[in-house]
Amino acid sequence: GEDVEQSLFLSVREGDSSVINCTYTDSSSTYLYWYKQEPGAGLQLLTYIFSNMDMKQDQRLTVLLNKKDKHLSLRIADTQTGDSAIYFCAESPSGTYKYIFGTGTRLKVLA
Amino acid sequence: GAVVSQHPSWVICKSGTSVKIECRSLDFQATTMFWYRQFPKQSLMLMATSNEGSKATYEQGVEKDKFLINHASLTLSTLTVTSAHPEDSSFYICSARDRRQGREKLFFGSGTQLSVL
Fold it and tell me: Is B87 helix (H, G, I), strand (E, B) or coil?
């Protein structure tokens, strides 16, 4: 079935790197996404990666994709207190516009 | 980037009343919009896919008569929670696909917190 899993919590110190992991199940997914949600707000698209790529870098964000293991990660360099939020990975199975979201990882950045 | 406006951002209502939530794409046309529900500290659950000019497609377990969806124009979809009960209290989020940019871009509204007393 469709199931996207993430660890629930991550705590890092300001200035350190954060790595948020995600495993997904649908190998047909063409795109994989990372979204950020701040308290009481909607979702903000951070970045996405096409399934034929294994890495994508966008400023402080680095996405790594291991398609064989169906593993996706988001690395945030030089994490700041403003990065504290919930991060969701999502997959979009081939042939559909539906997004399947992970359980979300709550990132807390300590000053 | 594209903007999706969702209104209201929060609403409190009495049990048994109906509540309408609007989702507008402000600077693009959206043939497809999606409605999600999010319980506290949980992930987003897709409720239905709203298609402009046709009936919505509901996910398994979602009552179509309780959650009425109307997508009458390319920029507006509405979700009406009919005869709301306390168990309907939740955070509802809409999203819209910008067809100019292809399927890889989906934009989200800011969400509506519904509290049913």
Answer: helix
Judge whether B96 and B50 are in contact, CB under 8 Å: no
- CB distance A100 to A23 below 8 Å: no
Kindly list the residues from chain A whose CB atom is less than 8 angstroms away from the CB atom of residue B110: 41-42
Determine contact: A100 vs chain B, CB below 8 A: yes
Report the first-to-last Cα separation within chain A, whole angstroms.
40
Amino acid at B72: A
Residue A61 tokens, joined: 């964000």
Contacts of A3 in chain B (CB under 8 A): none
pLDDT the model gives residue B33: 93
B1–A45: do the CB atoms touch at under 8 Å? yes
Please report which residue ranges of B8-116 form alpha helices under DSSP H.
none
Contacts of B34 in chain A (CB under 8 A): 97-99
Residue range B97-116: mean pLDDT, rounded: 81
SS (H, E, C) chain A: CCCCEECCEEEEECCCCEEEEEECCCCCCCEEEEEEECCCCCEEEEEEEECCCCEEEECCEEEEEECCCCEEEEEECCCCHHHCEEEEEEEECCCCCCCEECCCEEEEEEC
- pLDDT digits 0-9 by tens, A27-41: 787 889 999 999 878
